[in-house]
Amino acid sequence: MGDRAHRPRAGGGIMSGRVSGLRRHLLVPAIIAALTATAAVFLLSGGAPQVAADGAAPPARIDASLGLVVQRVEIEGRENTPPEALDAAIGDPQGRAVTDIDLAAVRQRLEHISWVRRAQVARQLPDRLVIRIEERRPFALWQRQGRLHLVDREGVVLTDEDLARWRTLPLIVGDDAPGAAPTLLETLAQVPTIASEVEAAIRVAGRRWNLRLESGVLVKLPEDEQPGWGLREAVRRLAELARQERLLERSVTVIDLRLADRLVLRLPPGVRPQSAAGEQQT
Q1: Which of 34, 27, 135 is nearest to 75 (CA)?
Q2: Domain ranges of the chain
Q3: Phi and psi at residue 38, in whole multiples of 5°?
Q4: Residues 37-51, mean pLDDT to the nearest whole number
Q5: Which helix (H) or strand (E) holds 20?
Q6: What does the DSSP assignment read for 118-153?
């Protein structure tokens, strides 16, 4: 017969008909199962992070009559974000088909809330919308043009309301204070004896800091990055003087540490000067 491909004969008898019927009987459930699995993948993928990122709704439209409608909205990670701000960003999804929710749009609105650093929005079948937020952490109170604001480490203004609950945070003053504050506060954290005395840190000319102590003493620090004598060196020097010379217990109004080779103290009127290493009274 040469290389001709074998072809089955038509009308293969009773056994052939039974086999064909059995194949058809098994094939229909298999197709249904495959279609069901495909639909499930489309639906469940809505809850995966990559779908939450692009917000693409599954191509298959699910009729709300099947019961796949939003009945519950779960929010995870909220500590300080105002509930009314979340409500405004989420809208009113309850009663809508889960596939009708634009995940990307909800996420974008959430991330426009000052407290929210990032958000994830996911569907959870059959009837839930799950929202996870990562909040910004309060870092300092920022005084600017006579008003107080709560800011995070990046200088993002979180709120200017109900600030009494944050009164234990450092107070920083000046237009560009938030951007420079992390370096200052990290430096002060290394010398807690000085940090505990600071009432406010005042940014001067965008280059250096003054520290207002609880006692009312003003400490003038050098420029942040001044070669050989900058912020860190001056704060360490202040800690040494406080420990060795009890400088913070003395009657002074100003401690000027802007120069590496000179300590300048300003005394209240009528106070006799006391000598300390390298100091000059005015």
Answers
A1: 135
A2: 49-135, 138-281
A3: -65, -45
A4: 39
A5: helix 13-45
A6: EEEEEEETTTEEEEEEEEPPEEEEEEETTEEEEEET
- pLDDT per position as a tens digit, 256-266: 999 999 999 99
CB 264 within 8 A of CB 256: yes
Q: Which residues contact 228 (CB under 8 A, 6 or more apart)?
A: 260
Would residue 121 be called left, alpha or beta, if left means φ above 0 and alpha means ψ between -120 and 50 degrees? beta
Q: Which two tokens stand for residue 169?
A: 């945070």
**Single-letter amino acid code for the residue at 75:** I
pLDDT in tens, 216-251: 999 999 999 888 999 999 999 999 999 999 999 999
- Is 49-135 a domain of CATH 3.40.50.2300? no
Distances (CA, A) of 225 to 138, 151, 235: 26, 24, 13
* pTM > 0.85: no
Please tell us whether the domain made up of 138-281 is placed in CATH 3.40.50.11690: yes
Q: How many CB atoms lie within 10 A of CB 25?
A: 9
How long is the chain?
Answer: 282
CB 263 within 8 A of CB 247: no
Q: What's at 201, amino acid-wise?
A: A
140 neighbors 109 (Cβ within 8 angstroms): no
What DSSP string runs through 79-128?
A: SSS-HHHHHHHH---TTSBGGG--HHHHHHHHHTSTTEEEEEEEEETTTE
Largest separation between any pair of C-alpha atoms in the chain: 127
